Amino acid sequence: MSVFEENMLQAVQNEIYLCLERLGWERAQFSVERPRKNTFGHVSSNVALTLAKQLKRRPLDIANDIAAELEGKIKGLEKIEIVAPGFINFTFSPEYFQAYIPRIRKEKEDFQKSNSGKGKKVQVEFVSANPTGPLTIGHGRQAVLGDTISRILEWHDFDVTREYYFNDAGRQIRMLGLSVLARYNELMGMELDIPEGGYEGEYIIDIAADFRKKHGDLKTENDLELFINFASNAIFITIRDTLKRLGIEHDVYFNEKDLYKQGKIKEVLAVLGEKAYTYEEDGATWFKATEFGADKDRVLVKNTGEPTYRLPDIAYHREKIRRGFDLIIDIFGADHHATYPDVKSALEAMGFDTSSIRVLLHQFVTLTRNGEMVKMSTRKANFVTLDELMDLVGTDVVRYFYIMRNMDSHLNFDLALAQKQTDENPVFYLQYAHARICNILLHSSEKGIKDYEDADLTLLKEPELIALMDVMLEFKDIMDLCKKSLEPMHLANYLYRLATAFHKFYSVHRVVSENIELSKARLQLIDAVKIILANGLKILGVSAPERM
RNA sequence: GCGCACGUAGCUCAGCUGGAUAGAGCGUCGGAUUCCGGUUCCGAAGGCCGAGGGUUCGAAUCCUUCCGUGCGUACCA
After folding, report:
1. Domains contained in chain A, number
2. Which residue in A23, A162, A232, A400 could disulfide with A427, CB within 3.0 to 4.6 Å?
3. What whole-number distance in Å separates Cα of residue A202 and Cα of residue A388?
């Protein structure tokens, strides 16, 4: 049996290009895609439609010419059909699909793995939540998105650095220190006095108690720095543990504080000043953002002498570029969309090329419980933490749910639904397909079919099997799409479709039957399905259970 | 006001760079199992793709106006 090196889309596209060349027609823009309906074949192209205008001929006639010219050129092709208004549909033969089964089973986790990243260095910055409280459900979306995107890039052979920008300087962190101090004083018998804008969550009390355990009773008025360090460190540890529980570990925690210690903040001010992109007004230092198209200039250093968040952001991104990544991906919540243009402008003002930076914005998570919106705020204590969510529904569900929607859309996370853990949940449907395959493989060996390596794969030819194998081969296209769009949703949807194709096949055909030869062939098939399911789930960070 | 998004079935959402009769899950109603796990499968009902205009062979998709929702528009992060 021959092995087909290219996938269907590439093979068809290349042959159409060659065909147009032979016919002396210009290269037009045309699509080669998988049609929505399987009655349109496995691959479909609109090339005749797009050529109609420049050739001044009927699309159907053009399609006929192209089809005739393609005759016998595409390996593994069963038939070409021309359909009004001028689509050319390609149907591949069962042999084409069958040829992939041994490859999948041989290459296993490396099947169709891409090396298109060529080891290029990519930095993915995500979460970067202020260390002022536990991670919430809102942070969870970004955490899972960032990690899954990282996994997708790693699959494509990029060298990925997962990074967390740790805001351990500035006003918010001082508020945290003051809040813990207030609780500490309360423990010491003083009246509780949480500062305006301070943090009121229960965890502040716990930190204060731990502080007292470690440091005992202090006269604390002048030890704010001690409280800040203790508190931010305590919260850092809980954040890291929460992420670890989700299967996420950052390679680098970049401390904002270091930007100050190493003089990077001053450097940025100096460089921008030298190039006359800053000026002083009302006691503050301003950046001339209007010269880069902004509606107004921005403050970099307040009249109190304290930098705004923009300045360290600029300094941090300057460091990112200087560290020599080929690609820098920033994942931010939608509330940050206004800040990046300023950072970009400042970097360009300093003479940096910002084309390697790609900013991904994701919309918010709306949490509902019994149909009612649950509002989230770290300062007030009425939030649901990411840990609580994992307690409720498990990490597999959390990871899948967060990426199953387009990041441009609001994610509606219905807690009541998520807690159900029933068949309404796509994760179980998917995992069940994997578990079911494992069970069938187990069953077959109990039935005495231990070795099915010598199967006759030409027996795999029923429509449900062809449809299943068609979906299996789509894996590479989906991974390419994920890389291009940096949108893991496509993989989640794909795996769901793969599971569906398998369940449909299962419901009409027995795998293990009295017909030993047929059983062997189908065992090879489902073993291959299992491999692709497991590969995809691994990229999503979701487990592939052998039984449930 | 201005900027960035979003608006598709009762609900939650797909629909990739414009393509063929707009799809799925849940919910509703009705079916399928002597059998490898029914946590499965099949069928039905349910849509002026927010509204109007434009571009073209062809629009849910691109442009434009309007309406609605979210997030920004800080010397908060």
Report:
1. 4
2. A400
3. 14
Domain end: A221, A245, A269, which one?
Answer: A245
Would you call A391 exposed, middle or buried from its count of C-beta atoms within 10 A (0-12, 13-18, 19+)? exposed
CB of A500 nearer than 7 A to strand B: yes
Q: Is residue A388 part of a domain?
A: no
Least confident among A53-57, A126-130, A297-301: A53-57
- Is there a domain that residue A480 lies in? yes
Reduced to 3 states (helix: H, G, I; strand: E, B; else coil), residue A45 is strand
Nucleotides of strand B under 7 angstroms from a protein beta carbon:
2-7, 12-17, 19-27, 32, 35-37, 39-42, 56-58, 70-77
Q: And the tokens for A258?
A: 């270091």
pLDDT of residue A364: 87
Taking only the tens place, the pLDDT of each residue in A343-386 is: 999 999 999 999 999 999 999 888 776 566 666 555 554 557 89
Identify how many contiguous H helices and E strands chain A contains and give both numbers: 21, 15
The amino acid occupying position A79 is K
Q: What share of chain A is helix, strand, coil (3-state, %, to 5)?
A: 55, 15, 35
Give nearest nucleotide to A510 (CA–C1'). Answer: B36
- Confidence category of residue A57, pLDDT binned at 50, 70, 90: confident
Whether A92 contacts A78, CB under 8 Å: yes
Q: How much is the pLDDT for A220?
A: 58
Is the CB of A299 less than 7 A from some atom of nucleic acid strand B?
yes
Query: Tokens 């970049």, residue?
Result: A254
- Residue A16 and residue A86 in one domain: yes
How does pLDDT run across A529-543, given as a tens digit for each residue? 999 999 999 999 999
